[in-house]
Design goal:
- The structure is a single chain.
- By secondary structure, the chain is an alpha/beta fold.
- It has helices spanning 25-34, 47-51, 77-89, 104-108, 119-132, 150-163, 194-203, 218-227, 236-240, 242-246, 249-252, 263-279, 285-288, 301-311, 321-327, and strands at residues 13-16, 40-46, 68-73, 94-99, 136-142, 168-172, 208-212, 231-234.
- It has an eight-stranded parallel sheet with strand order 1-8-7-6-5-4-3-2.
- Strand 5 (136-142), helix 6 and strand 6 form a beta-alpha-beta unit.
- The longest helix has 17 residues, at 263-279.
Length: 336
């Protein structure tokens, strides 16, 4: 079982957020080529899909993706425990319970952010999961939802999950307004409240607390880690500008050697991966759609994006599409 983390044993975490339809296994392999140290997460996988739907393929990944965590969604303690055991057997090192997703579908299924209203149920789920597996069980939550008062709700929530042995939590520092905003709006409109999350670090010093929400640069992430937080989690910016965010993580955050030297190195390393994917019946665009942002901010990057978007769906497309896309812009771009 996970043990309580002592202050002097807390290690900092830089993570890429779990994002539905984005952080699938191909995206994670691509991100891992850029950074060896960033903690990667799967998309949210529901316990019902794994246990009732037997969709165990959702847990597939490449060994190269480690360090890798799986995020589960659900609210049935027994079902979540069974799903957690499957995850442990598949070799995941951390299981994260989603208490933050604001979508209507998730709300209707009684999991995600709506569970901020049921901390006792969340604690029951976590307790059962921890009894079943020996790897880390963690939580990703909001500071509150709808008409809740975060100053009251969040400390009560953290107290209840701490009482069942959870020692690591990722807090999206916004409320989720489930009745009035779309999932997209819930990522931007509710104001950020970093100060409240900071207070939670003071109130629960034994908790490893990572901050999520509104972090768009590596410099901001580094400042937050240096000042008070044990970890940071970046979502959309890591996906849309992967090189800008991830290429310097290993050196800038962890003092380690950078994983690769150039964007072109990524192209060369992704080619055999795409070739192997095609050999197993996959399609090129299932991989290349995650690479659209590789050259964001560079001259002629639109040519890269347009070429991949237009050509990846054509019959006969193969791994050479990456070099072809690069050739459309290389004469006018100095690759860093």
């Amino acid at each position: 079982m996970s043990t309580t983390i002592k202050n002097n044993e807390i290690s900092k975490v830089f993570a890429v957020a779990p994002m539905m339809d984005w952080t699938d296994r191909h995206c994670r392999y691509f991100h891992r080529l850029i950074s060896g140290k960033a903690l990667l997460y799967t998309e949210m996988i529901t316990s019902a899909a794994l246990i009732r739907g037997k969709a165990h393929y959702l847990l597939d990944y490449s060994e190269a993706e480690h360090p890798l965590a799986v995020q589960l969604g659900g609210s049935d303690p027994i079902e979540l425990a069974e799903a957690a055991l499957l995850c442990e057997e598949r070799g995941y090192k951390e299981i994260n319970l989603n208490i933050g997703c604001p979508s209507d579908r998730v709300k209707a299924g009684c999991f995600g952010a709506v569970l901020m209203e049921q901390p006792a149920l969340v604690a029951s789920c976590l307790k059962q999961m921890r009894k079943t597996v020996s790897i880390d069980v963690t939580v990703k939550c909001r500071i509150g939802i709808d008409n809740q008062n975060p100053d009251e709700v969040l400390p009560d929530f953290l107290s209840k999950i701490s009482d069942v042995g959870i020692n690591k939590v990722i807090i999206h520092a916004r409320k989720a307004l489930l009745g009035s905003l779309s999932p997209k709006q819930n990522r931007d409109i509710p104001p950020l409240n970093y100060s409240l999350v900071s207070k939670m670090k003071e109130k629960f010093p034994m908790l490893h607390i990572s901050l999520n929400g509104g972090i768009t640069s590596l410099q901001s992430a580094s400042d937050l880690l240096d000042n008070e937080f044990d970890g940071v989690m970046i979502g959309r910016s890591a996906y849309t500008t992967p090189w800008d965010i991830l290429s310097n993580v290993d050196e800038y955050i962890f003092g380690d050697t950078p994983r690769v030297g150039t964007r072109f190195d990524i192209i060369l390393n992704m080619q055999p991966y795409i070739k192997k994917h095609l050999a197993t019946g996959g399609k090129v665009n299932q991989v290349t759609r995650h690479m659209i942002g590789l050259f964001n901010g560079q001259e002629n990057s639109k040519k890269w994006r347009r070429f991949l978007s237009d050509e990846a769906n054509l019959p006969g497309a193969n791994e050479s599409i990456l070099l072809d896309a690069y050739e459309t812009m290389v004469s006018n771009i100095e690759c860093e």
